[in-house]
Predict the structure of Aminotransferase-like plant mobile domain-containing protein.
Amino acid sequence: GQWCTRVPLIYFGTVEWHLPDRCLCQFGREQCIPLEVPDSQRAFNGRDGRQGTRDWPTKLANFIAIWENRQLQDIVTPNQVGRLGYHDPYLDRYRQTSVRYMTLEGAADGALADGIERIKDMTTGRTELGNEDVSFIR
């Protein structure tokens, strides 16, 4: 659908990007690692962009071209089946770049789930056991 299109939204001289690749899992789609956020641009002076220069089609031509070819900008991923695994590339990146928990309860639940996932990895041979891991299991 159109909601899966990664396009610039243009309001007079202001450009903001619609970035659906940042929230695909919220819509039941397989979450991919999001692309970098493109540059936005404010082309005019004035509070809302309606004042001053009215040559916005020229100043924003590159953004308008992307919008006009929006069917090429669709983010296509399959439907999500089950939960993302602990070692899913998206979650590995997310853990490195984001604040994972907003509350103490969320952190406790997340730590428990992470611990169970680590134990599962250790008992299935996905990772080798070291002294630190044996202590963690105890």
